Amino acid sequence: MYSLSTCWNSHRHIDGRAMLEEIRDLGFDHAELSHGIRISLLPGILEAVGAGVIKISTLHNFCPLPMGITHAAPNIYKFSSDDRRERDNAYRQTIKTLELAVKVGAKLVVLHTGSIEMKDYTDRLLELVEKGEKDTPKFQKLSEECAEKREAKKEKPMQLASEMIQTLAEQAGMRGIMLGIENREALEEIPFETDFNLFMRQFPARTVRYWHDCGHAQIKHNLGFIDHLMHLENMVDRLQGFHIHDVKFPGQDHCPPGTGTIAFDQLAPFVKPEHIKVFELSPGLPVEDVRQGIAHLKAIWGLD
Fold first, then answer.
1. pTM assigned to the model
2. CA–CA distance from 188 to each of 80, 182, 287 (Å)?
3. Which of 174, 176, 211, 269 could bond 180 through an S-S bridge, CB–CB 3.0 to 4.6 Å?
């Protein structure tokens, strides 16, 4: 199935039904409720789903937004935090997302699993790549420093995130919902691609799945930390779906497919009819750019 994330239009709407009708009018029969859904949008969303206006493919944690938060904030509470109160908040808000998923008939909830505490290497490295300095000793030194610090600091955050997902997997399984563990673009966010397979083996395969964000993988590819195709191939046995967007080199993501550097034709062999395919596009994109990007991708991946 193809779906369009409400990250593209939720900020422009005060009525959830009108938001979903706009997505339907672009030719979609499914939408993803993203992590910018305000509580005030819920009545219209439930009304639209109940009336058969559109189906909901997926939700992106946290959905709806926690009380008092008015903008998309998927990392506001981290599963990996040392602060028990923050982890408790992450758990409670994720349960609310699972409960909403049941109400709207969604199949899967996309999750961020946390991060390690370290300075922002991602933007610093992207700046060097943008300046054409990827092959310089400065870039190499910074990359090595980042890799070393990640390895040195990952054990406890990974353990905390694992414990959280084990508990959430039980809750999701009871509700018939899958959890999609998303690959992330920031170098400090976990799990790292080198750990993904081992990390996923801790959880029941029927409930905990891999969610491939094309743009995030491409950014790390551009930084030299992964090979995009190789990572996707390594995860194919647990793959449940995609966030689809393009990347203008080296790190501008959420662009329409066909306007950036992702070789979607090379990803196509890994795409199956049963996978959930969600366009996750920038809120600033005009409708015509959205239409063109959708048409470009479907011409490559097929119309299922």
1. 0.97
2. 12, 14, 34
3. 211
Whole-angstrom distance, CA of residue 298 vs CA of residue 284: 22
pLDDT digits (tens, 9 = 90+) for 130-148: 999 999 999 999 999 999 9
Instruction: Look up residue 5 and give its amino acid.
Output: S
Least Cα distance to 63 among 105, 15, 111 occurs for 111
Whole-number Å distance between alpha carbons of 30 and 52: 11
How far apart (Å, rounded) are the C-alpha atoms in residues 74 and 60? 8
Report how far residue 34's alpha carbon sits from residue 213's, in angstroms, rounded to the nearest whole number: 14
Domains and CATH numbers, the chain: 2-301 (3.20.20.150)
**Helix pair angle (84-104, 42-50), 10° resolution:** 30
Cα–Cα distance, 213 to 182 (Å, whole number): 7
H or E element at residue 209: strand 208-213
Note the pLDDT tens digit of each residue in 28-56. 999 999 999 999 999 999 999 999 999 99
Angle CA 85–197–145, to nearest 5:
70
Length of the chain: 304
